[in-house]
Amino acid sequence: GQQLNQSPQSMFIQEGEDVSMNCTSSSIFNTWLWYKQDPGEGPVLLIALYKAGELTSNGRLTAQFGITRKDSFLNISASIPSDVGIYFCAGRSSGGSNYKLTFGKGTLLTVNP
Amino acid sequence: DAGVIQSPRHEVTEMGQEVTLRCKPISGHDYLFWYRQTMMRGLELLIYFNNNVPIDDSGMPEDRFSAKMPNASFSTLKIQPSEPRDSAVYFCASSFSRYEQYFGPGTRLTVT
Asked: Most buried residue, A53, A81, A101, B74, by CB count within 10 Å?
C-alpha cells in the first residue's frame, strides 16, 4: 500500500524558533492535508493543498505542495508553547471518487518556553 | 457550529464483550469515515460511507468489526466480541464532497 514518510519524528525547540517538517511519498498525490493533534483530542485540520507548487498560509503556518507531487512541507514561524502537539500529513493519491487519505506517522513538537 | 460528536469518550470493557461506538457527523456532510489510531500503526482507515452507503470497508480488521450508518446524522462501529488487541483510539471524521476531513474527539477503547 501507499506509504508516507514524515520527518522528523520529533523536535525539541525553543519558543520563538521556526520549525520545518515534511512528508514524502513513493507515489504521486493529488491532495495534501496537514493536521495537528493535541493530547486526548482528534486531529484538527490546519491546511489543505490541492495543486502542485501551491503555497498556503494559515497564520504562522505555511505549507507547500511539492512540484513533484510526491512531497509536502509545513513550516511554523515564531513558535509558541501552544504549538506543542503532533503534526500529521495526509495525502490522497488517486483521482475520481477515491476519498481515502493516507496518514504519516506524525511529528511530535515540543516547545520550551 | 457543532463539530463531529463521538460517544462515549472512554470505554473500558472485558474481552468477549460487545462494544458499540457512536458518531454524529457535521450536519450537511455526505462522507463519514471511521479510523483507528494506535502507537504502532498510526491512523488507519477502517471504513467510509457516502450518503449513508458503505463505499470501502477494506480496512476493517476482521468479521468482528461492523459499521452502520442508518441515516445522515448517525453511525455506529461495533466490535463483537472484543479482544485486548482492539484497544485503541477510534475516530470518526466527516467531509462534504471534498477531501478535507474533520475529526471528532475520539473514543478511547480499553479491552481487558
From this structure: A101
